[in-house]
Task: structure prediction
Amino acid sequence: MNCILSSLKPNKKAISLLIIICFLTVSTNQCIAQPTLEELSCYGFIVSPVKCENVTIQDQINSKIRHMINDILREEIPVFWTATDIMTSVKEIGQELPAEMSFEKGTFIIPFTGDDVQDIKITAIIVDYNQSSEIEDDNTIRIPVYFLMEQIETQVYPLSEVKLAQHKNPVSIGEICFLEISRECGFLSFELLIDNIIAEKLNNNEFNVLTHAGGGAEYATFYKTASFYMLTGDLRHRETKAVRKFVSNGGGYIGSCYGADMASSGYKLGPITIYFKRRAYNPKLPSIGIYAFADYIGKKPPGNLGEIQVKIVNDTHPVTYSLDNIVWDLHYGGSEMTHVGENVEVISQFYNTGTRMDGTPSWISTKFGNGRVVAFSPHPEIMGFYKTNKTHLGKTIISNALFYTTAKEITTLQLPHMRSPTFIEEILGETGNIQILPGTAGVFNEIKDNINVTIDEIINLSDYVQRLEGMIGVIADANKVDLGELKTYLGYKSLWITGYHYYPLFEKYLENTTGALNTLEKVYSLREENDSDFTQQIEALKIDISSRITEIQKICEQGYEMCENYEKALLKYQQRPLILSRAKELLLTDKGHKFYWHIYSIFAYIPQIYFNSLKLLRTSWYSYEANIAL
Result:
C-alpha cells in the first residue's frame, strides 16, 4: 500500500508539464474557435429528394420538392441538378452552425444570383415550402431545405423550365397519367396537342419536350382502317416531319409503350423486319409513318405482362436518380426492343418476368440531332396514377425524364455569389410573418359562375353516356351475348373510357380552378392599388378563361347531339334481333371514336384553365412576398 501511495504523490515536473498542456489547449481552442453567424457565407440552397419508410409521405414530400423547383424555374432563377454524389457543409434553416452532409446525385442546388430582388424571391419561395405558405390549402407537408455553406465543384445539369406538349392520339389513356404527374409535381406549362393540330402547333419556341403516351387495341384498329389512312395519310406524314424537326432542333421526347414504338426505326413482324428508317439517328434522312429517333426494332411481346420489375443497368443516367436497382413497372403490350444499335443507351432491362423479355431493354435513351429521347416499353407513368402503393415510382421516373430531356448540357457548377446567413434570416423573418390573406375581391365572380354552369353540363353529359350503357345492357340481355363484346362491337368502349376516366377529371380540374381563383382574388386585394401590371395580368387571365369556357360549352352542346344520334342507332337494335357483322362493327366503332374524340377535345382547354390560374397565383404571391422583404 505504501508503494502505491508513494507513486500517487505529486510530481513537480509532471504538474508543470500539465500546466503547459492546458495552456496550449486553451490557446489552440481560441485559434480554431467557431465563427459567428455573421462571419459565415452562404452560396444558396440545396434540396434533395427524401427516402423514408412511409412511401406516402415520401411521395408527398418529393412531389412538393419538384413543385418548388418548377416554381423557381418559372421565375427564371437558375437551378442545377447534380450528376454525382457530393459531401458539403450545410446549415439547416434555424440551425446555428454548419455541418457536413452527403447528398446523392439528383440533388437540386439553387445558388444565389447576386441580384437582391431575385435572391429575396428565392428565399421567399424556399420559406413557403419549408415552413408555411398563406396560399396553400395544406401546410402539413414541409420540405427539408439547407443553406449551402461552402464552395463546391461538381458536375451538374443546368435545368430549364419544362414547357410540355402532350401528344393525344385516339383511344389512349396514358396522357391522363402524364397530366396528373404534371399537376402534382408542378410542371404547369402544359398544353395538349391533338393529332390534327400537332403538325402546325409544335415548335421549339413555345415547347421544349413532347410526351407521347401509349395506345390501346382500338387505336391500332382505328389506324388500320383503309378509309382513315387514306384520309389522314398526309396528316400523319406532316406530323412525323414536325415531330422529327422539333426533336432534331433540341426538343425532348418521352414515349411509353406505343410512344416508344414511334421512336423505333421499325417493326419485326414474325420473321420479317420492316424498316421505316434504317439509320434512325440521322435526322437529315426522311422517315415514313413513325418518328424513328432510335436505332432499334420493336417486336410483338408475348402478351401483356402486367405489373413487372425492371432492373437498372445504368445508374448514372438521370432517369434513374432516387431509384433502387430493381423497380416496379407496368407492362401492357409494349414492344420487345431488338436489334439495338449504336446510338441507343440502355437504362434498364426487363427482370424476372419468366418470359423471353427478361434481359431485353425496358427503358432506353438516345440523342436525335440536338434533342434527347427517352423511350419506355412499359408504362411507368401509369404506375404514378393507378398503383397507389407505388405512386412515387411513376412520378419519380417521369419527373426525372422531363428534367433530363429539357436540361442543358452537363457542366461544372460555379458559385460566384454569396450572402450572409444573417441577411437570409432577416428575410425569413419578414416573409414568414405576413398577415393572413384578406377576403376575396370578387373580380372573378362571373367566371366562377360560368365554371359552375360548365361543371353541371359535363355532369349531365356524363349521365347521358351512362344511360347509353344501360341501353347496351338491355340489348345484350335480349340477344344473349356477352356485354363486354357487345360494347366493343357497338363502339361503346370509347364512350366508357371517356366517361370513366375523363369526366371526373374535368370536374376536378374545374373545381381546382375555382379554388385557385378564390385565392388569387385575395392576393389581388393586397396588390391592386400599387401594381398596374398585375391588374393587366388579371384581365388577361379573365379573357383567356372566358374564351376557353365558351369553347367547352359548345363542345358539350355538340356532344348532346352526338349522344342523341348514337341513341337512335341503339334503339334500332332494341327493336329487332342483333345481327353481328364486321362492317357494322367498324361503322359503329367509328361513331364511338368520333364521339370520344369530340369529347376529349374538352381536355385541350380544361388543364390550361387551371394551370394558368395557378401559375399567376404563385408568381404574383412570390413577388408580393419579395416586395414585403425589400
Summary: Residues 445-629 form one domain.
